[in-house]
Amino acid sequence: MQISRFVEKIHGKLVWLRKYKGPELQNRLQHYSLLYLLSQPMALSEKPAMIVAPHQDDESFGCGGLIALKRKQGIPVQVVFVTDGAASHSWHPQFKSGEIAPIRREEAIAALGILGVEPEHIYFLDQPDGRLKYDETIQQQALTALTELIATLQPGEVYVTHRHDRSADHEMTYQLTQQAIAATGLTVDLYQYYIWLLWKTWLFREVQWQDLAGAYRLPIAAVKTQKRQAVETYKSQYLSLYGGGTLLPPGFLNRFFLPYEVFFKP
Predict the structure, then answer these.
(1) Contact, 241 vs 92, CB < 8 A?
(2) Which end of the chain has fewer surrounding CB within 10 Å, N or C?
(3) How confident is the model at residue 231 (pLDDT cuts 50, 70, 90)?
(4) Are 219 and 259 in contact (CB under 8 A)?
(5) Under a CB-based contact definition with an 8 Å cutoff, are residues 264 and 258 in contact?
(6) pLDDT digits (tens, 9 = 90+) for 138-147
(7) Do residues 211 and 172 lie in contact, with contact meaning Cβ atoms separated by under 8 Å?
(8) pLDDT digits (tens, 9 = 90+) for 205-217
(9) 0.85 exceeded by pTM
(10) Residue by residue, what is the 3-state secondary structure of 7-59?
């Protein structure tokens, strides 16, 4: 009888681990493999950079360390937000449609201030959140704006979300950024950063080896505290607002607090 209960208890623990901890452990294993086995060392360049973010928080999650390092050395950094972030909390009873957008804008300005980017170097294109992939008019508006900004600011490097980042807005932002660079005729180093690529995905199933090619790791230990402060400025995304639950799942932020950031060069 005791053995039977013991076996049932162990079985229950295994089921719990597989259901609730399995995805997080799998994510960590894949990320650490990418970071420590599949990526090459990357040195910080002195080229002016433009960070293109689909939503307010992507820039700090994926590039917060890079931004802080460049700004500490006085290297110009411009940040462009493609959408207004209004789809966040669309389900929340305390927010009418789009009311979260100004909150996210304020969080972005505060977060980037921590990283050393002044408000005059932050650009909000205010395209409708969640509709980039499905509306050609919105795509054209975003493409025109991105092309004009790149032509005017002439960055040496552009960082944008991964082409297979498992988010429609993220993937379309990559396509539009690539098209915008081509339209300017400028020679620009294009790097991809990832947010959702390895979250609850299986290598060789949802993610292929070619998706991880050209990976570079940038050491950011010197500015890790700054990055954490910037990420934690986005309280609307990881804290419960008015008891409505959080947007980001438990464990999601862990990898953004490591002493490296990973970028992909096509």
Answers:
(1) yes
(2) N
(3) very high
(4) yes
(5) no
(6) 999 999 999 9
(7) no
(8) 677 777 888 999 9
(9) yes
(10) HHHHHHHHHHHHHHHHHHHHHHHHHHHHHHHHCEECCCCCCCEEEEECCCCHH
Q: Residues 89-120: pLDDT tens digits?
A: 665 656 665 688 999 999 999 999 999 999 99
| Residue 166 and residue 203 in contact, taking contact as beta carbons nearer than 8 Å | no
Q: Return the residue matching tokens 């199933």.
A: 205
Question: What are the start-end ranges of the E strands in 130-219?
Answer: 157-161, 189-193, 215-219
Select from 16, 54, 55, 29 the least CA-distant residue to 198: 29
| Domains, the chain, with CATH or none | 2-264 (3.40.50.10320)
Q: E strands of 116-188, at which residues?
A: 122-127, 157-161
Distance CA 153, CA 214 (A): 26
Cα distances (Å, whole numbers) of residue 21 to 13, 27, 28: 11, 10, 11
Query: What token pair was written down for 121?
Result: 């170097």
CA distances from 228 to 11, 61, 90, 115, 252 (A): 38, 9, 26, 10, 13
Give the H/E segment covering residue 251: none
